[in-house]
């Protein structure tokens, strides 16, 4: 693919190349954490220079992307065990490849993102009868009517590296809208503290994308229940929970990972909507 089509994306949309790079490179090195063969194949098909991304994010950033992928995979697989015919909605899908790793043959899957991103996505990741794309902003709530939802089958929303880019009031409004329209559903996503967000913004600037600044942070996960009685926090887990640090990682990477984990600077959050 001509890199001009990717470079035409602006701001937040162009950040979709960063996790793709991380999953492709580091799942090749550590498939026991995440085996993302589809990401590897996509990167091979692209004529795109990842050198600035690699320089900005390095080993630590790359490992975070496969750890995040693993956490989301595990959550979806556990949910599917309880709800084998469930619906999964991937918010801000970008070039995410999760469906290829978790599909059980009977779930319904939706990849939701803005039109420019979905147009690019369809050239690299084909749709199927059970994995469809929706070309709308998550804040254009008309997409809600496009979702197959049967309460008895459950519904799970996942968001990978998405909510950072928006203001708290936008995120709060979205969470409440999901809870109101999908009672009994669940939401799994990642987040950072205010301090960690500052570091991430510096890394994004170094990658050459100064238009994709992040705003939403989570210092105390109890905030979600204060937003609405429809929201209940099921869990708030640290980065390294159920992830074993590898001696092959650089010492500086291991120390940074451990430091961030001990201070709970980043984590994964699981919310349930009241039925």
Task: Describe the overall structure.
- This protein is of the alpha/beta class and 275 residues long.
- It has one domain: Vaccinia Virus protein VP39 (Rossmann fold, 3-Layer(aba) Sandwich), CATH 3.40.50.
- It is 43% helix and 16% strand.
- Strands 3-2-1-4-5-7-6 form a seven-stranded mixed β-sheet, sandwiched between helices.
- Strand 4, helix 7 (168-181) and strand 5 (186-192) form a beta-alpha-beta unit.
- The chain starts with a helix and ends with a strand.
Q: Helicity, in percent?
A: 40-55%
CATH architecture level-2 label: 3-Layer(aba) Sandwich
Q: Please identify which CATH superfamily we are dealing with.
A: Vaccinia Virus protein VP39
Radius of gyration, in angstroms, nearest whole number: 18 Å
Return the CATH topology: Rossmann fold
| DSSP strand content | 15-25%
Question: Order of SSEs, N→C?
Answer: HHHHEHEHEEHEHHEHE
End-to-end C-alpha gap: 45 Å
**Strand tally:** 7
Q: Pairing-aware structural class of the strands and helices? A: alpha/beta
Q: What is the approximate shape? A: globular
Number of helices: 10
Largest sheet: 7 strands, mixed
Report the average pLDDT across residues: 91
Indicate the multimeric state. Answer: single chain
Number of domains: 1
Poorly predicted spans: none
Widest β-sheet, arrangement of strands: 3-2-1-4-5-7-6
- CATH class placement: Alpha Beta
